[in-house]
Amino acid sequence: MAPMAKSATASERRTEILKSAAAAFRRRGYHGASVDEIASALEMTKGNLYYYFKNKEEILFACHEYSLDMLLALMAEVQADTASPEAKLRKLVLAFVHLILDELHGTALTLDPEALSPVLFKRVIVKRDQFDQGVRAIIQLGIDEGSFKAGDPKLIEFAMMGAVNWIPKWFDPEGPATSNQIGDAFADYLVGGLLKP
Amino acid sequence: MAPMAKSATASERRTEILKSAAAAFRRRGYHGASVDEIASALEMTKGNLYYYFKNKEEILFACHEYSLDMLLALMAEVQADTASPEAKLRKLVLAFVHLILDELHGTALTLDPEALSPVLFKRVIVKRDQFDQGVRAIIQLGIDEGSFKAGDPKLIEFAMMGAVNWIPKWFDPEGPATSNQIGDAFADYLVGGLLKP
DNA sequence: TACGTCCTTAAACGCTCGTTCAAATCCATG
DNA sequence: CATGGATTTGAACGAGCGTTTAAGGACGTA
Fold first, then answer.
1. How far: B50 CA to C10 C1' (Å)?
2. Which of B156, B161, B167 lies at the smallest CB-CB distance from A189?
3. Is residue A184, in this structure, part of any structural domain at all?
4. CA nearest B169: which of B27, B22, B70?
5. Could you tell me if residue A105 is inside a domain?
6. Would the Cβ of A170 be found within 7 angstroms of any atom in strand D?
């Protein structure tokens, strides 16, 4: 029969683990965080984790996929939009900051993907490249249509994404700036700075 | 008597170790890199490292101090300059990129300082804050004197530094972009974007 | 040659951590 | 209640790693 949604489905349980793991990885890094740490934050034993995941690496990989899929969904949404490159980029930055801070709790591309074995690493890189290309395409469009200053879209995109990806390194939830304020300020600076005078 | 500069002084040896350690930390992270890995890259045994450093953590700390001292020296130089805020910022970004890529080989603030014990961590933070404040002061000056757009200097500084600190994550020495091209492009975008139209 | 200091080595210790596994427990169903 | 699959436990293992230590070498000096 169809399984009941009793207290927590297996899929929900996996997600819980991913959130705990992501928090631990972010605090201590992949190698610094222990499997036991991830488990006991959920009041389960570490052995139990292996019922849901093959090993630690697979947990890290799932974290990356989870984040990247959200980013790619965002990208698809933006691409479907018919707004100007400027508006698209603004929306992207705003949503990205919101996603990283409020949804993923500072856990996007910061989690060292190099810790993955070559096969899984490559799969992460493919998705990340897909996102990068999307951003670059918007920048290129703005340059072509003449609303953005000339420049290398690749380097500009790296700078934009670097600024945003770095946020978790200094963000303090107790601090003065809310995620919305940060998003606005970053969009103003990073997108506004691209516009031709 | 004064020690001879035979093949390598003790101080040079320490620096060699720091360079090897920085490379290893950058590749695998602090916890991911083993002491043995650092040592054997220099064709020495791991036990020998403990003649030069008390423990692994002290090596990480020394890496940070080394980088931060160079950054602070750069900041002092820029501050002594009498140029415009725009010129100062440009110089700072250019030199920062050059420093990170050519001198430190992608090893500035990327090496997880959170791995340090509270005491050493605090000492790193103090220096990093000192640098941050310096950058913010320049931005504030530009805003006050009216050459820069209005904005929160703190958030703008975070964005700038994030963009620059992220460079090692994607930089490929074999790639098409040289450190000078990257420096120029980043200065154009990050500083140029601040200017009032 | 003999000494003493600086440097290096090799081996061992102790601890942590990822992973495995057989047994125990839970729980919807018949 | 009894069954059986899903889930959880607790203990154990084996490997890797940071660190210590005692002894060995290199080498300028007396």
1. 14
2. B156
3. yes
4. B27
5. yes
6. no
Q: Say how many domains are in chain A.
A: 1
Structure ipTM: 0.90
- Could you tell me if B29 and A29 are in contact, meaning their C-beta atoms sit under 8 angstroms apart? yes
Q: Put residue B20 in one of left, alpha, beta given phi > 0 → left and psi -120 to 50 → alpha.
A: alpha
**B59-CA/D29-C1' distance, Å:** 34
B42: in domain: no
DSSP conformational letter for A177: -
Please provide the DSSP assignment of A33-100 as one string: S-HHHHHHTTT--HHHHHHH-SSHHHHHHHHHHHHHHHHHHHHHHHHH--S-HHHHHHHHHHHHHHII
Provide the residue range defining the domain that includes A86.
56-192
The alpha carbon of residue A45 is apart from the nearest alpha carbon of chain B, in Å, by 23
- Residue B48: inside a domain: no
Q: How confident is the model over B51-109, as pLDDT tens digits?
A: 999 999 999 999 999 999 999 999 999 999 999 999 999 999 999 999 999 988 877 67
Would you call B196 exposed, middle or buried from its count of C-beta atoms within 10 A (0-12, 13-18, 19+)? exposed
| B106: nearest Cα among B76, B138, B139, B63 | B63
Is B57 (CB) below 7 Å from strand D?
Answer: yes
pLDDT digits (tens, 9 = 90+) for A45-95: 999 999 999 999 999 999 999 999 999 999 999 999 999 999 999 999 999
CATH number at residue B156: 1.10.357.10
